[in-house]
């Protein structure tokens, strides 16, 4: 079975895209460089801790990672996500305010896009989107077309992380928010057969994504129209390589910190599509149309 057949069986064009990550991540992870052997040793200790559920591990799950990430299930989830994205980007100077108070990009309405909702204290406080390359179109192709095509040809199924944001009135973006959201997206992607994860970030943020998930830079810096011309760089990470993940975060990316129910695939309903369509920038272009 060829690659195109596999993608077609999974089933469900380009946009003015937004870089995947929010503009500021203030807390850095441990800067220690770890060899492959070191990863294996730390990995074993991490799994031991995850299995025994010590008091220290319970604190880490409850206090260090207060945000729980779920696939968006309702119009309320989607609207809260788009409002969080709008408020975060406006505050950071990455987009102009909109009359609707939402930041909706065409790819958010695609069937191959999974929007995630981060919740804490019974409030929706964060968001992230994952676009599966099921129809050979990813948002970042607007800026990095050649890079995406190269990754697409080298892997079974690629996907793009995009639109990460934390509500400004909840907290500044921190490493634990990034981990909680991206870990759910990674485990979701793995269940969909994705083996290559892409994103665009500000050049100064490449380092933190390398530390957490093993992202590597795969292209040159370029101005990104989706965020007011700010510089962006394409990055990629393997979804299934356990050695790429920082040992501290293995229980999230490969363990049971993310429950199966949190990453159940969901789709924006036709009612939701009709509701949000008028707010999506560039939706009039036929290449942005939602596949049926």
From TrEMBL:
InterPro entries: Acyl_CoA_acyltransferase (IPR016181), FeeM_cat (IPR054597)
Organism: Stieleria neptunia
Pfam families membership: FeeM
Protein name: N-acyl amino acid synthase FeeM catalytic core domain-containing protein
Lineage top rank: taxon: Bacteria
N-acyl amino acid synthase FeeM catalytic core domain segment(s): 80-236
């Amino acid at each position: 079975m060829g690659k195109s057949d596999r993608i077609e069986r999974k089933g469900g064009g380009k946009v003015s895209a937004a870089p995947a990550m929010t503009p500021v991540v203030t807390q850095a992870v441990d800067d220690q460089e770890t060899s492959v052997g070191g990863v294996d040793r730390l990995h074993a200790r991490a799994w031991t801790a995850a299995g025994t559920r010590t008091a220290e591990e319970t604190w880490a799950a409850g206090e260090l990672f207060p945000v729980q990430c779920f696939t968006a299930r309702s119009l309320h989830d989607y609207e809260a996500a788009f409002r969080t994205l709008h408020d975060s980007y406006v505050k950071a100077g990455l987009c102009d305010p909109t009359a609707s108070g939402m930041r909706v990009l065409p790819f958010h309405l695609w069937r191959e896009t999974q929007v995630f909702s981060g919740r804490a204290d019974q409030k929706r406080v964060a968001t992230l989107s994952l676009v599966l390359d099921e129809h050979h179109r990813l948002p970042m192709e607007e800026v990095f077309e050649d890079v995406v095509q190269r990754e697409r040809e080298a892997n079974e199924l690629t996907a793009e992380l995009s639109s990460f944001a934390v509500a400004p009135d909840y907290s500044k973006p921190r490493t634990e928010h990034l981990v909680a959201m991206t870990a759910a997206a990674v485990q979701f992607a793995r269940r969909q057969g994705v083996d290559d994860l892409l994103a665009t970030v500000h050049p100064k943020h490449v380092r933190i994504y390398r530390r957490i998930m093993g992202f590597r830079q795969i292209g040159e810096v370029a101005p990104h129209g989706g965020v007011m011309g700010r510089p962006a760089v394409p990055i990629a990470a393997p979804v299934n390589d356990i050695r790429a993940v920082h040992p501290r975060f293995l229980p999230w990316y490969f363990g049971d910190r993310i429950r199966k129910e949190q990453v159940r695939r969901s789709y924006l309903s036709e009612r939701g599509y009709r509701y949000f369509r008028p707010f999506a920038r560039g939706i009039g272009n036929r290449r942005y149309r939602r596949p049926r």
